[in-house]
Structure formats: C-alpha cells, structure tokens
TrEMBL record:
Keyword flag Metal-binding: yes
Residues involved in Zn(2+) binding: 7, 21, 174, 178
PANTHER family per the UniProt record, alphabetical: DNA-3-METHYLADENINE GLYCOSYLASE 1 (PTHR30037), DNA-3-METHYLADENINE GLYCOSYLASE I (PTHR30037:SF4)
GO process terms (BP): base-excision repair
Lineage: Bacteria, Bacillati, Actinomycetota, Actinomycetes, Streptosporangiales
Name the record gives this protein: DNA-3-methyladenine glycosylase I
Keywords, in A-Z order: Metal-binding, Zinc
Source species: Nonomuraea polychroma
Length: 183
C-alpha cells in the first residue's frame, strides 16, 4: 500500500508534526480562548522552529492557564517572573509580556478575538500545488496584522498573522494532492 501524499513539512523527523498536520493545521478553529492560544503560540514561535513550540505546547497551556483570556489578562509582574522561570516554555520576556498584553487587548475587542480574526478568512485562496506556491505573507495577513496592531496587539506581523491564518483554517494551504486537504 502506498503512503498517502502529504505536505512535505508534515513528514519531518517528529511524529508530532504528522499528527499536527493531519488533525489540526488548516482546520477551522473558532472561540476567543482557542484563537488566543494560537496567536500567542505563533508569537512565541517567531524565530524558532514550530516543532519547538509543539513540544512545549502542553507546558504553555499549563503555564498560561489554558490560555483563558480573563486569567492571562489579569497576570501581574509576579506572573511574568514566574513564567520567566518556567523551563517548560520559551522564556522570552518580550514574548511573555506580549501574550499578556494581547490577552488584555483581546478582551477589549467589541465582538471578540475570534470574530475579528475570522473577518480575514480567504476561502478562495489559490490551491497550492507545491510548497513553493505557499506564501509567507499575503495582503490578507498584512491587513490582519495591521488590524490587530490597531487594537494594541504585539508580535503580530504579516508573517506571523499568515501562520495564524494557516493554522486555524482561514486559508487552506494543504497542497492540492495532500490527504488532509479535504478532511
């Protein structure tokens, strides 16, 4: 039996990538806390491998109270220090402070974070045939980043915004022949 065709990055050295690719990446995800988790993790990933974040994901969830917006928004400097001492997460002060800031900004959104982000969905994005067809940023991700920044979000540039769009299904960048494209 032939192995199903997948996006090339899914066959990387760790089975965690395969599971993430097949079961989560590109699938529509809604809900303010769920979307906030992805915004935060994409920011923490900046400059690092996504696999690093996947391996630490459960630690992030524990450290950040399952990314509950009200809980993270209430964090104080004491929580920042606690997080900086947590070897199970990425210990970067700017990224930790951005996550807390972004939780506060998300709570201030009149219609919520999920609603704001989903306004930038692009169901008609071209279907990539190869990984070379998958952009790093798009006009939509630039607009999303600009809108998030307008509301006070940090660590949300166009590339990070596009990675978020891919991760939560605002675009479907599974390759044309990928087994996960139509799941």
């Amino acid at each position: 039996m032939t192995e199903p065709i997948r996006c090339s990055w899914a066959g990387m050295s760790d089975p965690m990538y395969l599971t993430y690719h097949d079961e989560e990446w590109g699938r529509p995800l809604r809900g303010d806390d769920a979307v906030f988790e992805r915004v935060a993790l994409e920011a923490f990933q900046s400059g690092l491998s996504w696999l690093t974040i996947l391996r630490k994901r459960e630690n992030f969830r524990a450290a950040f109270d399952d990314f509950s917006l009200p809980k993270v928004a209430a964090y104080t400097e004491r929580d920042v220090e606690r997080l900086l001492g947590d070897a199970g997460i990425v210990r970067n002060r700017a990224k930790i402070e951005a996550a807390i800031n972004n939780a506060r900004a998300a709570l201030d959104l009149p219609d919520g974070l999920s609603e704001l982000v989903w306004r930038f969905a692009d169901p008609d994005a071209p279907v990539p045939k190869t990984m070379a067809d998958v952009p790093a940023a798009t006009p939509g991700s630039k607009a999303l980043a600009k809108e998030l920044k307008k509301h006070g979000f940090r660590f949300v540039g166009p590339t990070t915004a596009y990675a978020l769009m891919q991760a939560i299904g605002l675009v479907n960048d599974h390759l044309e022949d990928c087994v996960a494209r139509t799941r």
